[in-house]
Amino acid sequence: xxxxxKTKLLSGYWYIIIIIIAAGIISMVYxxxxxxxxxxxxxxxxxxxxxxxxxxxxxxxxxxIFFNDSLNxxxxxxxxxxxxxxxxxxxxxxxxFIEIIFYNISEEELFSFxxxxxxxxxxxxxxNEDDKQYKNxxxxxxxxxxxxxxxxxxxxxxxxSGVGKTDKNVR
Amino acid sequence: xxxxxxxxxGESLMWLVATIAIIVILIIGIYAAIALGKAKEVTSVFSGNxxxxxxxxxxxxxxxFALSINDSxxxxxxxxxxxxxx
Lengths: 171, 86
Hints:
The structure holds two protein chains of two kinds.
Chain A: H1 3-34, H2 40-55, E1 56-57, E2 60-61, E3 66-67, E4 70-71, H3 73-77, H4 79-82, E5 96-103, E6 109-116, E7 139-148, E8 154-163, H5 166-169
Antiparallel strand pairs in A: 1-2, 3-4, 5-6, 5-8, 7-8
Chain B: H1 2-38, H2 58-69, H3 74-82
């Protein structure tokens, strides 16, 4: 092969290599940025914090929660509006779930109420992060704290919050 | 003549190896992009993965406020509250 033919062959080779490298870089960028951020952990945590702020402020339980030493049904029924929470999303089924459980100091359950997609409650307790299907399930957070009412009666409060939205957070 | 052919074979082999190296590096990069893309996560500062030690969690603050009002059974309360962090 003469020098002219050799140069032609080499420049053709370089064009092919440049195209391969460009395609590789474009696919890397596309694959990385096409995957969504999984923000369900932060979102369920924020949901728990908002609910906790509504239930107890500076350690004292919201007085609207009780009615004659038991749960005020009006508060639990209107929990979302009382606590300025909005579970509405684009999807047909609710994408959020929250359960609030009150215990006495002996850890006996006094009362509880929940809002949102109650079907997800059982999924919250399946924690096998090695399982690939785990990522496609609802993401839950549990928060526990202690609070007192106006008469200084002691309560242990557990909040379980869950966020679905798998189609927007997992791919 | 033979030396010339040998040199040509050597040069071709060098280009072939270089091409394979470029392709292998690109494949590794693509796999890394897939893995890093899947691991993209926004965690709350109080999650187990957080490295922030100065964050004062809401539940701790609420519990401390309530304990400042009534701290009887404090050990039991703290044990129950901390059960979640295990």
